[in-house]
């Protein structure tokens, strides 16, 4: 069954690329004779032509994040693998792909600026302000959450921190060698990628190296990741001199928790410094090469996952997850709209459009590169989503959280070709963390672009970056309470809203591009309007349910979450009204 599902998805994606992709390229009139913003507006900081292989690596690793892994796994756990699989395949090919490519091309034709500029030109200034306010709020929440998740992963596993730091250093060297010393791309790729893969393995095997990234001074607490209960604690204590003074498993747990919290706080501020640099430095020096190098590890993960899907059944892996569970999940969420909100990046995500019209459109070297970068990357992400569904199919249920479920299933897939399942699981977690960090640094730069555009480029990149980072840190540090009165950080209170907000951005992007296609290109736009209507109605319904659950029917109303949901819904409906007013105009 795994083989059939994987093969069917790949066949659909390949056919869609060569047929639907050709159709879209024809609608847009892509031509390599036209100068792209990367060439016409080259400044060596944001506008910088990139080789399509480099740009695909940057774009793919930036749009992926943890979304195509966590979303499909969570949805499959709620409703079964079949509806999740169908949505990932159909959504990637006919909704997410056109959304991503449309945003990229529209931005490329508007000086590499965001979809907000497209809205400004073809819908109106008010529509632009509404769109940018909506997306800036979403981006700041993304930066806050991904910053926290990355800091947590670095604190828990110093080997991951070691590997990520190495990525950054190697990326700077790579950028200088390629863009300043004119070394061949293929040669640097052949040298750098094996070095990074080996270093990742080295960091996991030689704990004394990665321990330097833990800031603890107590290797016992760092390295005994297998200590999970009293029995394993006593076993470890009997064989490790450093643990002999730890009185009990409870004392060990408390010390470990305090250590992780301390390390997390240190890494959070170190990562703040990193994302500031990633936002303001020339794109060729850090952001682009880091994402390019990271993408090879992600390609490697796709290959291992693909082998697992192809050979899984014949190697004894059984599908344990039901194809369909119920129209309503155990937490009371209905299949519609929650399946389509939960899957997000595995089928369609508004964040993708912000990447495509933010960093990617400023680096497109030739117009026809928009097809493999814009459409191809979304189809590749669809493959990642299908593999993620495969990992929970063989696990049978959620193993703690989606990331651990993916890593465990990935370890089982790797075992088929002789990779130790423990090593395979570590590789799976490293792949997820690579996704997280690439999305984090790109999101910070995107927030900077959006704020600059909101103020008509009158704000410098340093000030705009500071606004994004300070706002994100405020969400991490300012406390609030949940309906039960428990103290939680602000980002945690707002995160349940992100799925709907992100998908609503996707619907508004489709609407903006559709208006541009109709008014500027004088072409049919129904192929954009149909997915727009579906996503608009779906996300508005999800926000409606959230407003009902947090304000109307809740025993203790959550005014923060419910109130912001109302604000987002009103902003979206106002922009829709502006868009249809623009569509009714007769152009000269």
What this model shows, in words?
With 588 residues, the chain is mostly helical. It has one domain (2-583). It has 24 helices and 2 strands. A two-stranded antiparallel sheet has the order 1-2.
Largest sheet: 2 strands, antiparallel
Class based on secondary structure composition and strand pairing: mainly alpha
Total beta-strand segments: 2
What order do the helices and strands follow? HHHHHHHHHHHHHHHHHHHHEEHHHH
Largest sheet, order of strands side by side? 1-2
Output mean pLDDT: 87
Can you tell me the residue ranges where pLDDT is under 50 for at least 5 consecutive residues? none
Cα gyration radius (Å):
23 Å
Strand residues, percent: under 5%
Approximate shape:
globular
Number of domains: 1
Total of DSSP H or I helical runs spanning 4+ residues: 24
The amount of helix comes to over 70%
The span between the termini is 56 Å
Question: How are the secondary structure elements laid out?
Answer:
Elements (H helix, E strand, L loop, with lengths): L1 H27 L8 H4 L11 H13 L2 H13 L1 H28 L6 H8 L2 H32 L1 H22 L5 H21 L1 H4 L8 H5 L6 H10 L9 H32 L6 H25 L23 H9 L6 H7 L13 H26 L6 H14 L5 H34 L6 H17 L1 E3 L5 E3 H5 L3 H22 L6 H27 L6 H25 L5
Antiparallel strand pairs: 1-2
Brief account:
The chain is an all-alpha fold. Helix content is 73%, strand content 1%.
């Amino acid at each position: 069954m795994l083989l059939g599902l994987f093969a069917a998805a790949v066949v659909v994606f390949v056919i869609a690329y060569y047929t639907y992709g050709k159709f879209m390229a024809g609608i847009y009139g892509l031509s390599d004779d036209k100068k792209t913003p990367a060439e016409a507006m080259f400044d060596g900081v944001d506008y910088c032509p990139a080789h399509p292989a480099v740009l695909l690596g940057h774009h793919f690793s930036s749009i992926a994040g943890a979304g195509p892994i966590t979303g499909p796994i969570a949805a499959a756990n709620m409703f079964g693998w079949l509806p999740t699989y169908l949505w990932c395949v159909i959504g990637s090919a006919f909704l997410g792909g056109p959304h991503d490519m449309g945003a990229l091309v529209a931005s490329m034709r508007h000086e590499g600026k965001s979809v907000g500029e497209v809205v400004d030109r073809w819908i109106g200034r008010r529509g632009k302000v509404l769109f940018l306010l909506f997306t800036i709020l979403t981006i700041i929440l993304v930066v806050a959450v991904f910053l926290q998740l990355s800091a947590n992963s670095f604190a828990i596993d110093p080997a991951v921190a070691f590997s990520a730091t190495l990525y950054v250093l190697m990326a700077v060297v790579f950028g200088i060698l390629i863009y300043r010393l004119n070394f061949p791309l293929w040669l640097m790729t052949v040298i750098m990628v094996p070095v990074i893969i080996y270093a990742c393995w080295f960091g996991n095997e030689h704990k004394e190296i990665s321990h330097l990234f833990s800031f603890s001074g107590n290797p016992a607490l760092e390295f005994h990741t297998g200590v999970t209960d009293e029995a394993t604690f006593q076993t470890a204590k009997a064989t490790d001199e450093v643990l002999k003074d730890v009185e009990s498993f409870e004392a060990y747990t408390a010390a470990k928790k305090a250590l992780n919290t301390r390390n997390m706080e240190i890494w959070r501020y170190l990562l703040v410094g990193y994302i500031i640099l990633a936002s303001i430095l020339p794109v060729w020096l850090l952001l682009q090469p880091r994402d390019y190098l990271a993408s090879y590890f992600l390609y490697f993960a796709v290959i291992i996952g693909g082998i697992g899907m192809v050979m899984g059944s014949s190697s004894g892996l059984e599908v344990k997850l039901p194809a369909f569970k119920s129209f309503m999940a155990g937490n009371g969420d209905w299949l519609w709209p929650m399946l389509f909100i939960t899957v997000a990046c595995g089928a369609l995500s508004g964040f993708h459009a912000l990447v495509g019209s933010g960093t990617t459109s400023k680096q497109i070297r030739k117009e026809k590169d928009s097809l493999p970068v814009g459409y191809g990357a979304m189809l590749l992400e669809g493959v990642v989503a299908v593999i993620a569904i495969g990992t929970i199919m063989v696990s049978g249920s959620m193993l703690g959280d989606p990331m651990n479920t993916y890593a465990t299933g990935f370890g089982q897939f790797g075992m088929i070709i002789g990779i130790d399942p423990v090593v395979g699981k570590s590789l799976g977690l490293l792949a997820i963390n690579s996704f997280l960090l690439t999305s984090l640094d790109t999101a910070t730069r995107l927030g900077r672009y959006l704020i600059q555009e909101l103020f008509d480029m009158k704000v410098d990149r340093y000030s705009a970056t500071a606004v994004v980072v300070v706002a994100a840190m405020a969400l991490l540090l300012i406390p609030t309470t949940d309906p039960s009165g428990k103290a939680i950080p602000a980002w945690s209170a707002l995160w349940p809203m992100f799925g709907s907000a992100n998908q609503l951005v996707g619907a508004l992007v489709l609407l903006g591009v559709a208006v541009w296609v109709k008014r500027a290109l004088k072409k049919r736009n129904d192929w954009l309007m149909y997915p727009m209507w579906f996503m608009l109605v779906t996300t508005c319904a999800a926000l409606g349910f959230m407003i009902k659950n947090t304000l109307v029917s809740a025993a203790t109303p959550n005014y923060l979450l419910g109130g912001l949901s109302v604000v987002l819904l009103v902003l979206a409906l106002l922009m829709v009204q502006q868009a249809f007013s623009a569509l009714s105009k007769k152009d000269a």
